[in-house]
Amino acid sequence: MSSADLHDSASDSEGYTLAALPHPGDALPGIGGQLKSSADDFVVEELPLYQPCGSGEHVYLRLERSDRETRQIERELGRLFRLRDADIGTAGLKDRTARATQTFSLHAPKLDADEAARRVGDELGYTVLAANRHTNKLRTGHLAGNRFTICVVGVHPDALNLANQRWRHLQTIGAVPNYYGEQRFGREGDNAVRGRQLLLGELRPRPKPWLRRFLLSAYQSELFNRWLAARIDAGRFGEPVSGDVMRKRSSGGLFTLEDGAVPAEEQERFVRGETDYTGPIFGRKMTAPTPGSPAAEAEQTILTQAELNVDLLARAKLDGTRRSARLPVGDLQMRFEQESVGEAEAPASLRFHFELPPGSYATVVLACILKETGETAADAD
Known about the structure:
Helix content: 25-40%
Number of strands: 17
Distance between the termini: 42 Å
Order of helices and strands: EEEHEEHEEHEHHEEHEHHEEEEEEHH
Structural class: alpha+beta
Largest sheet: 9 strands, mixed
Number of helices: 10
């Protein structure tokens, strides 16, 4: 299997859809509309975790690009400067159908940063916003978050009011479900399927190590989504339950609730947004809920339904981790827009501005607001 066989996580997915997953407030009407009709309708700015210090063996290039996958840019940079894949770093993938601002690191001790910026602009055609040196390679997660400006076109005429209704409901339960987005599962939506085949020894030929990790991670992500969907279906999204593994938002530290009634002070911290309960990214080193608790039983149900066990995960050398179940959305703003074209009116649109922490998906936020149900779906049709 070559890299061409990978359905890139930054590509649009057709096989795996967020619409099939439950969302809090599904009984409320959605606004309809269409995402990402052009790159300018989906703008994302990567927020750096730190600034380059001005010295070191790595050149940091902050680029603005449209309609390009992150890995495609990495390959172009590698060919231009004759670098290995391992010499190029990013903090995360960005969607292909987007206008994105993103930083790349190049391990090139003898390369002048200004000369690198000039060549990238002249020979690759990208806008270079900044070029500087730093001491380390950029790695996944080396970002403070992402800022989005997204235009949804063809929305319901009362879209702003309907969107505000759904957003107010989401605020009453604290946040948006932190699902993995469709991009995680590839253009055909089958990366998780292939990850399961790999885990069970059914995928041939065996992929290269980096692709193996990618496909197995996609399957772990799907299992998390199943767990979160079951939690929402059970009506327990807006509260911690006995045995949950909790995470502090300020530090990221984990702690486990004991089996029994959730203490009132922990419930209050959760409501204030100081803590979140977490879901399983299954693996041999994953922090588990309190044995015998409702939280532990819910996670075991996902493994049982998938016909998996811890021994199988251990043989695949999957370490596992925890993922927060709630996604806090920062500084959300919405603006209704409709322009006249001659004597006719153009389709209405709703423009969103918001910030998200690393590892989360703007499409998940919008799925909670756009989802078409009831009257509005019929009206939009």
